[in-house]
Amino acid sequence: MFDALDALLLARAQFAFTVAFHFIFPSLSIGLASYLAVLNGLWLRTRDRSYFELFQFWVRIFALIFAMGVVSGITMSYQFGTNWSVFSDRAGPVIGPLMAYEVLTAFFLEAGFLGIMLFGRERVGERLHMFACAMVAFGTALSATWILSVNSWMQTPAGYELAANGQFLPTDWVAIIFNPSFPYRLAHTLTAAYLTTAFMVGGVGAWHLLRGRGHSAPVRRMYSMALWMAALVAPLQVVIGDLHGLNTLEHQPVKVMAMEGHYQSYPEGAPLFFFGIPDSDAGQVRHAIAIPKLSSLILKHDLNAPLAGLDTIPPAEHPPVGIVFWSFRIMVGLGLAMALLGLWSLWVRYRGHLYEDRWLQRAAVALGPSGLVAVIAGWVTTEVGRQPWTIYGELTTAASVSPIAAPAVATSLLVFAVVYFLVFGAGVFYLIRLMAQGPERPEDPEGSAPEGPLRTAGTVPLAQFQTIARGSAG
């Protein structure tokens, strides 16, 4: 039944499916790791118990998200060998070392300190525990840095030469790592991860406030902190996104043409299409709602600046315009909604009704998952907009696929789909249950964390020793 299907299409669908599942977990773990480090630092500095309770609440959620991120990421590496062996062979001299650096530095750093972060507060002392929290946060950001360097190089390749056998050989590692799009993509992605976490935390806090837990100091605290993050970072993300778009226009103009729906060239200013139905066969956006010349103003800062269209590009090099057009609008629309909610929260906070404004709380709940949707939409815009290239301008996707039969790819895709929905569906269900429970009051940590470790090999634990000593004295 799979013989009539195309192996290339199935391989692309499989990678898109697995990476879409995977991408949401690192986006949350990057933000949550930093949030937990901040909470732990505030607890140590102020001894405000609400910070400790929030740390205990969110660290359980972080542990589950981190685990699902690791498991979902493993399957993607196998696909480089099974479905994309030609790409692996040709790009391996560049991609391989960068991926190895990610494992040897970032992943080992995260994994090495994760156990201390989760279970070591009473065993290693508060200072080392705080250091472990900071290292996990740093490790998650460092991991994103290496992965984005790899992906950015595929978008804007630099620092290489082509060998006689077609392999990409590195000539300048600095140019490879810090390729032209890397700084913008790194800033855009990390900011998106922090916003994704902020809106999830704010949505959980708002949900508990709506359920009558406004008396809870931890609930009020996480709601307030999340809205501060939204108010400060969401407008910043709009600016970073604009800079990233200008960089994309310089290095990947075809992607921007698809994002804007510009089938034709505009010699005297291009319109901005807010909505419409892209029709690639007719070469136009049907039923368009547009503002004349606004696209030229945004992209060139000049109302009358000319912008080239897809009519200047061979049809074989056109990306799927409809997908890119709409995924871009979903991302931008959600980003603007997040920025507006942040500004709304500032006004409500100024009026002194932050914890009483039910409409703001309902909006925060509704936008709780918006960051996850936005990062997936952004990823679709980036990756589909790059088509038909795997390495932009050098290696096509059709030339990157393994010589594998369609039934084999289809079978593995079905297996992935079933297993992912079962395993990760159960994981997400449990995550939602954890979030619904709200912060609990764990055992008071005051006085229970000595400066040194509680146990040394071959000795009696400190707490047990003190009990024995008191009994002996009695």
Automatic annotation (TrEMBL):
InterPro entries (alphabetical): Cyt-d_ubiquinol_oxidase_su_1
- Keywords from the named record: Cell membrane, Electron transport, Heme, Iron, Membrane, Metal-binding, Transmembrane, Transmembrane helix, Transport
A GO CC term assigned to this protein in UniProt: cytochrome complex
Transferase among the record's keywords?
no
Report the membrane topology from the UniProt record: Multi-pass membrane protein
Question: What stretches pass through the bilayer?
Answer: 20-45, 57-78, 98-119, 131-149, 191-210, 222-240, 323-347, 359-380, 404-432
Q: Name one GO molecular function term.
A: heme binding
Where does the record say this protein resides? Answer: Cell inner membrane; Cell membrane
User: Predominant location of this chain?
Assistant: membrane
**Region called Disordered, residue ranges:** 441-460
Taxonomy, superkingdom: Bacteria
Q: Which family does it belong to?
A: Belongs to the cytochrome ubiquinol oxidase subunit 1 family.
Q: What is this protein called?
A: Putative Cytochrome bd2, subunit I
Q: Which organism is it from?
A: Pseudohaliea rubra DSM 19751
